[in-house]
Amino acid sequence: xxxxxxxxxxxxFPVPASKAYKWCxxxxxxxxxxxxxxxxxxxxxxxxxxxxxxxxxxxxNRGNVEKQKLVQLYPDRLLWVSxxxxxxxxxxxxxxxxxxxxxxxxxxxxxxxxxxxxNLDSAGVKSLAGKLKKEDSAAWKLLAKAMIKELGx
Length: 153
Known about the structure:
The chain is α+β, with helices and mostly antiparallel strands. It has helices at 17-24, 31-34, 122-151; strands at 3-13, 40-48, 51-60, 63-74, 79-84, 93-100, 106-116.
């Protein structure tokens, strides 16, 4: 039985909330390069206007790892939900919500339910939650820099 790992963090953007949402949900095959992972590929399948399947393939020393994610967009709420359908953390789910903090400032609130398929005690859960939060937060710091560069802020 998988072990649930929960964590959350926020990331500020010096852009209006609607622009941040559009930038974050404009998926492209180059998304992994923005986060410094050039050994990855992304395939994007649009199921509907608000439903996307992302298939990410990571090339590692131990072979390829494929992760397929179902992304459901809620543009009226500036929110999206990503659920892992395949991969080592199958059924993990991530909620992303952007809110305005003024005319030209917004904030992403990230909430994670990471499912770990190894047995962990409470100390292991706490340690992994801290590690994953640090890694995901660092990735969003890189994405924020790319957003600022691209949107000209």
